[in-house]
Every structure is written in C-alpha cells, then in structure tokens.
Amino acid sequence: MTAASGVEPLRTDTVPLTPLDDRAPLLPPVTRRTMLRAGGGLGVVWLLGAALALTGDDRLRPLGAGLMLPGGRHFASGHPLHALGAVLALVVAVLIWWMIGAVVAPVAVWVLDLALGATMGGHHSTDTGLLAVAVAGPATVALCLAAHAVRHTRRRRRAGFLNAGVLARPATITRVPSRVEPPVREASPDDLERLRFALDLALQPLASFDGFDRRDQFREAALRYQLCLLGYALAAYRNTCAPAFGGYLTEAHARSIEKMGDRRVWGYWALENAWGRLSLRRDPVDNGDNVMLTGWQGVSAGLFETFDDARFSAPGALTYRWSDDEAYSYDLPALASSIATNMERSPFTLFSCEPRWIYPVCNTFAVNTLLMDRRLHGGTAYDRLHERIRTAYLAEFHRPDGRVVGVRSENLGLSWSPWAGDAVWLPTTYWLHPAYPDLAHRSWRLVRETVLHERDGRILLPPTLANRCDSGSYAFGGTAFGQILLAMAACEIGDEQIAARVLADLADTETTHRAGGAARYADVSTQGNLYELMARFGRASGLRDLIGHGLPDAWRTGPRLADADYPDVLVARALTDGVALHCVLRPGAGPVRTTVVVDRLVPGRSYHVAGALEREIVADRAGCTTLTLDLGGRLQLDVEPRL
Questions:
Q1: What is the three-state SS of 358-393?
Q2: Nearest CA to 499 among 433, 546, 444, 573?
Q3: Using one digit for the tens of pLDDT, what is the confidence trace for 486-521?
Q4: What's this model's pTM, rounded to 2 decimal places?
Q5: How far apart are CA 278 and CA 90, in angstroms?
Q6: What burial class does residue 354 get, using C-beta atoms within 10 Å of its C-beta: 0-12 exposed, 13-18 middle, 19+ buried?
Q7: Between 540 and which of 172, 259, 300, 494 could a Cys-Cys bridge form, CB atoms 3.0 to 4.6 Å apart?
Q8: Nearest in space to 326 (alpha carbons), one of 278, 257, 266
Q9: What is the pLDDT of residues 393-414, one digit of tens each?
C-alpha cells in the first residue's frame, strides 16, 4: 500500500547483499579446531587399541580391536553379523544423543560392547581381521572427508554462480521502525475464529493443557514451543489489529508465559542435564545450555513487556517449580544474562539446545531476547556480541551455497546435512530478520529464486521428506506445515504477495475444524496452527519493528480498551492515536448486552462516545470509564475527547 491509500510507505534503504563465500575453507575455523580436538581424543583411543592388538595376548587383542573400531572385536574374530549389530546399536545411540542430548548413550553402547567382549569367550582375533579393523576407522574418516570435500567444492562453485546471478541485485531493507505509524487492519470474521483457537488454549486454567499436543518434551512437539508460539501469535495479532486492546488478550499472553514454570513443561531439563552433562542440577536457566527455553521464553516475555507491563522483569517473576520445596526463580533480565554468559563462553558463540548440540534457529531467539533486553532495560550484551554472532552465523552455520547448517555438535563439530532443509531454513530466515536483515533477505532471495516452484497455480516447496513433516506432531506426508512456514517468512521479509497466495491456497486445500466458535486446520498440529496465526497476522517487518523498536508512543500512552468479556466481545480492531480510541467489535457468542472498560483517558476529561449506549462520558480519577454495548453484529466504537 502507498501513502495515497492512507498508509505511510515503508522507510527503506537499498543495500548490497552479503556475498556467499566462494572461497570458504573446507572446515570453518571453530569447527576445524573442534574436530581436530575430537579426532585427537579418538586417535589416542585408537592407538591404545592398536597397542593392545600388537601384544599377542589373546585376551587383549579383541579388546584392542574393539577400541580401534566399534564392533571391531566381532570383525576381527570373523563374526560380521555380530559386528553389524554392534555398529547399528551405536548408530541408534548417536541418534538418541542427538534427539534428547543423552551423550551417555553412545558411550554406554561402546563400553558395553567392550565389557561383553571381555567376559565372553569364542572371539579369537586373527592377524588379518585385526589389520582390517585397524584400517577401517581411518579409511572411513578419509572417505567422509573426501565426500565432504567433493560436496564443498560443488557448493563453492554454486556460491560463485549465485553471487553473479540472483544475489547480484541489491536488497530493499526496512529501517527500524519501518513506519512511524504502522498500519492497523481490521481482522475478518475468519481471522477472529482462528484467533479464538489460540485464546481458548491460553485462557484455560494454568494447570490445564487441553488442546495442546502432548507427544514428548524433548523435541519439536514439546509443550514449551507451543506455549511460546502461543505468545508470539497473540503478539502478532495485537501488533497488526489491536494494539489498543489489553483485557483478556493481556491475560492470555501472561498465562502462556506463566505455564512455562510448570514442571510438566520444563522438567525435561533435569533428565537432559543428567544424561547430557552428567550433572544432577535441575536449574533450567543457570547452566551452559537450554537456549530452547531461555531464548524462546525470553522473546515471549519481551513481547509481552513491549505491549503491556514489566511484570516478568520483576525479580522472581519467572519461576520454574519442581516441587513445593524446590523452585528456580528468575526474570526476563536474568534470561538475557544467562544467554549472554553462555554466548560469551561458547567457542561457537551460539550455544546448545540439547546438551552438546547447537541449533542456529534456536539461537535466533537468544539474539532477539538480547535485542529486546537492550531496548527495554538498557542491556549491553547485544552490542558486545553482535559481531561475534554475525561471524558465527556466516562462517560456522551457513554452507557456502547459502543454506543454513541446521545443527552442529559442540564436541565433534559434525552436522547433519538433512537438517539443512527448507523447514529449518525458513524459520531461521524469519527470526534472523530483526538483528541481521541482510542475511535474512539473502536467504529469502535464495529460497524464492532457487527453491520455490509453481505448479497448477500453487507456490510450493520441493516435496522433500523434511518439507512434508509436521514438526508439531511428527506426522509425515502433508505439505501444510512447510507452506505455513513459507508464508510466515515471506510476509515478514515483505514478499506479501507470496504470503497471501500461500495462505489462500491453504484455506482452499486444508480441512478446517470448527467448534465452539473457534477454527483450526484439522490435519495440522497445534504448533502449525499457531505458526499459521503468526503468518496470518504478520506484515512486512512486523517482527523486526516489534523486536528492535517496540511501539509508537501513541500506542503506549493513548486510550485503550482495557477490559471486555470473552468470548462475548471479539476485537477486530483497536487503535489509538494518543488521544482517541477507535474499535471494531463483533459478538463471539451471539447478540449480547455487555460492558467494556476503557482506560488511559485523561482524568476528569469529557469524551464523546459513538457505538455505546452512553453518548457522553467523563473519565474518572483513574482515567477509566465503563461503557454499555448492544453487540449484535459488527460494531464501531469510538471514544474521542470533546473539543
């Protein structure tokens, strides 16, 4: 929209995109040092095994083979099926380590295999078998390095091609804020039905989790992610449609934050810290990991404080209760402090979610928490770490072809190529936008021009396994979750046409479940439906404005719809210009006579009212008034000072 249509145009700068590194080293610096250190440790174990194998002692030779190679004692003694079983067990243990941070799993499997070998007879190693085992480990490492070198060379060539092609054009990046007066639109009846899904989740009692997906508390479907996304979705709606509304919206967001203190939400950490760090400390904040809690909740609490009050910055406001006698009390500044400490002491700067596994997407939440801590509390950590974080993303967590490295082992330096898919790349792009807009625009340019394709009028992601996985339920086959992430990123970056087309296609192709006035996509997880609300209520640079700038002064100080009954009153629009309040309300449970409260008026001042039974009011000493409404359909409510 343009100024001619009544909306201030975006404030933008045209900047060149950071080129891809077509001369990137085979291994990034910190990754290389980490891998050399890990390789040195494993090399010592291999040398010990080789020394035992050379002793000629039939009791020690199998042990040496097992040290040189997992399952090696079986190979060396001519039992390949037993060896295959040992290797598969180790692979499964590594996957368990990756999924839930249990570093003890692969160590335990290897040690158990060695222990069983020491107690079992019938394994007499041959010289030929020992030689094969001795060569197998180094040969496997060499083959993996060679394969990586081939892929790396191909990606560097592609980087040069992309630099000269799709990345050669500069990008149009918004300033902060993107507009002095952000646009506020009216939510449609369908928008409000979808919003009610989130409100119903959030407004239930603190101890209840009805409607949330309950699959596990370790991976992507965990309650903590759903609760944080709930807060983000409510903030997106408020930013786009109802910045001058508190009431049950404030209560809903607050409850989504408070629920994080429930042991059922954060208690996973006691297990992860035990089997990942070999520590019995249960504190979810004062540790070297867990950005999946501190970063994610930090953003939600920061967004809440942006719109409402500083209750979650009060000492002890964020309390994680283990039992009646054990609780860990923190606040928003303490989350930011924990994040800063962990980044400063991490060789990678980015730090771990599950112990010893670093996810760059989760670290975007940490960066955004630091940004809001700077804006809200004068924190200095973001300024200290800004360049280190940027360097880490560019050098350690992006491939030469521009794709994000989805995960990297803190101890081994290894990453999983499948975890560099679009379903990881898109949310990383979205959440990078506030702090590193040029990197976000570069990623979006690559996605749009090298990944997306059009078929039968639909804009689609490639039909990969990752793009067909709903991370909130682990269900495979559907495309909706990936398309939702696509719409969310497109809208934030400013490609609103693509976002609108993708959301419209979802509405046409996905089954909608309606109950009690609320609507959701029936075959999409709770998490996916909350992401859809973030896309639905997103706008160009909406997140970037909220994180980096906050609200215009008029929004923070002007008259506000402070209270209304839910679900009797649904708020399609609520906007203040600093002196007047303009709302559009709809009934949520049929025609009703009800009351609403307006606050932040000038005490003792007279106001003209349109849309309520009262036509003239005088604000009380607290700057409040109560209005009576006959709400039977769309109602325009205006409260304006008398001249």
A1: ECHHHHHHHHHHHHHHHHHHCCCHHHHHHHHHHHHH
A2: 444
A3: 999 999 999 999 999 999 999 999 999 999 999 999
A4: 0.96
A5: 20
A6: buried
A7: 494
A8: 266
A9: 999 999 999 999 999 999 999 9
